[in-house]
From TrEMBL:
Belongs to the short-chain dehydrogenases/reductases (SDR) family. This is NAD(P)-dependent dehydrogenase (Short-subunit alcohol dehydrogenase family). InterPro entries: KR_dom, NAD(P)-bd_dom_sf, Sc_DH/Rdtase_CS, SDR_fam, SDR_oxidoreductase. It comes from the Bacteria. Signal peptide: none annotated. Residues 3-173 form the Ketoreductase domain. It comes from Nonomuraea endophytica.
Length: 267
């Protein structure tokens, strides 16, 4: 079945590869970025979208509905990440992070739900992270925003299931995306050095040198096309293993294991 799909955040990384893969499979795909000319993918129609502007969100969704009269799937893969110690992170940075991963998704979900309810179905696929399972040191707001997105999706499933609307989160570890270039770093407090810089650089290198985003995009395509979409897709060995380790290991043991990975104190 050919679907009409809106991919938010299609200018790079997972969103770009998802839009490309969906278009290759014959779907009618719209890809967004703050500037429409940043979306240059064969078969994908570019749209400008500022997720923090409800007028922009409404105009984007209305454009798709005016062209097709329906919207079958929303893929939300927007954002940047904030790095730094909690003490360093201003309220403005924290709110910007929550707007990117939680409130931005909320704006788009609210905009597409009337059409999906009216047509008797639809799919909402939200890009989360393993940081929702185990918080990353010096990335507390990023981790909290991903965990919040997971709980948001969980509650939303109950609400929209009677209308045939399905909701999924996709969790993966770091893959090569444009996220490292879009990182926003707080002003450093010397007392947290050198651990602070070491952890932030390690996470940044994971973004720059990690595996291809293609497997994650393939997982999202499976979610969009599945006969019965699952509520959670964990892509990659680490993403599938980490929740089991978190569940099975005693908490102090897990903390020591996780702290060793980032070279920090388990606390």
């Amino acid at each position: 079945m050919i679907s009409v799909v809106l991919v938010a955040g299609a200018s790079s990384g997972v969103g770009l590869e998802t839009a490309r893969a969906l278009a290759r499979r014959g779907h009618q795909v719209y890809g967004t970025s703050r500037s429409a000319d940043r979306v240059d993918i064969p078969g994908v129609r570019p749209l400008a979208l500022e997720i923090g502007d409800e007028g922009s969100v409404r105009a984007c969704v209305d454009h798709v509905l005016a062209r097709h009269g329906r919207l079958d799937a929303l893929v939300y893969s927007v954002g940047f990440y904030v790095a730094g110690a909690v003490e360093e992170t201003s309220d403005e940075l924290a709110l910007a992070q929550l707007r990117a991963y939680l409130l931005g998704a909320h704006h788009l979900v609210r905009a597409v739900l009337p059409a999906m309810r009216g047509q008797g179905g639809g799919r909402l696929v939200l890009m989360s992270s393993t940081a929702a399972v185990a918080a990353i040191p010096f990335h507390a707001i990023y981790s909290a925003s991903k965990a919040a997105l997971n709980h948001y999706a969980e509650a939303l499933r109950y609400e929209v299931a009677p209308f045939g609307v399905r909701v999924a989160c996709v969790e993966a570890t770091s893959v090569r995306t444009g996220a490292a270039a879009a990182m926003r770093e707080s002003d450093p407090i010397p007392g947290y050095e050198p651990v602070r810089t070491r952890v932030i650089e390690r996470f940044r290198r994971l973004q720059l040198d990690g595996p291809s985003p293609l497997p994650v995009a393939d997982g999202i395509v499976r979610a969009v096309e599945a006969r019965r979409m699952r509520p959670l897709y964990r892509i990659g060995t680490q993403a599938r293993t980490l929740p089991w380790l978190r569940a099975l290991l005693p908490y102090p043991v897990f903390r020591r294991f996780y702290a060793r990975f980032f070279h920090v104190s388990p606390g």
